[in-house]
């Protein structure tokens, strides 16, 4: 079946315009004529092989997505099959991907613009992880950002559920080379810490304007994630933010943050501090212009976080920042997360992906 504009799917969903196409499927903007609302429609391509294998993967994506309800995860409305083609009917949110944002900026992103995106993504990932679902392909192209700053995680096409039969074979490499965790690059099982590593790469790219590793081939890039030390972030990046992103990028999963909720909390604290600093700087400039204070203002003491312990958190300042690793959800409301490139992505195999980007 060839999909065309105006075609009606399941006698209900009209195909309006193709948004993207990759090796495994295509995504359309559509319209639900029964409920009168726009939808996103993801459909398998029929002009490629391994159709049954792709159907199994799309069904798994539907099951995994159906178990997730969170403001920062694109909602699944329905799954439908006809003539060997599977269709995911999903929430449509007018937005750009974070990859589009990075390309548009063409360099480092303002941390106060990047942090809300990272925080919301971490909150969405925590909910997925708490349902036993590992995304396995966290990258800017799968993080959608609306005009009002709302984030939606998309494309659970290669996600892994601890509660379902495994689809990928042991030793199979799944993910996108530029953002893949060291353990995934070695064909090991992905864990929540694998997604945290990938989010760390996303953060690194946003803060630097480029990814930590490049290479001539996807294999070269993946090998760098395994073997090469992460280049340090520039000193222009806030020291606490710099050290925490590097903490997310630890080679050993056990040396990374305990969960994605901890990531959201720490990044939120850093964001609040940076906002306070920005407010103080603006107030200081205004007062200087008014002549109400001397031009020289005492700065706060500098704290060196260069010797962060991976497990013990013995440095007092870092202990204050990170707090108890077993912290239970407190004032953070996961269901109301309204906190304010370079080259092409290389993907391992058509079986390990839904879209090229």
What does this entry look like structurally?
There is one protein chain. The chain has helices spanning 51-66, 98-105, 111-130, 182-185, 192-208, 218-227, 239-248, 260-290, 316-322; strands spanning 8-9, 13-21, 25-32, 37-44, 76-82, 85-91, 95-97, 133-134, 143-146, 151-153, 160-161. By secondary structure, the protein is of the alpha+beta class. It folds into 2 domains: 8-91, Phosphorylase Kinase, domain 1, CATH 3.30.200.20; 95-262 and 302-348, Transferase(Phosphotransferase) domain 1 (Transferase(Phosphotransferase), domain 1). The strands form 3 sheets. The protein has a 6-stranded antiparallel beta sheet, covered by helices on one side. It has a 3-stranded antiparallel beta sheet with strand order 7-9-10. A hairpin with a 3-residue loop joins strand 2 and strand 3 (25-32). Helix 7 runs antiparallel to helix 8 (260-290). The longest helix has 31 residues, at 260-290. Mean pLDDT is 83; it is low at 296-318, 324-343 and 348-357. Residues 342-357 have a biased composition (Basic and acidic residues). Residues 13-275 form the Protein kinase domain. GO terms for molecular function: ATP binding; protein serine/threonine kinase activity. Its EC number is 2.7.11.1.
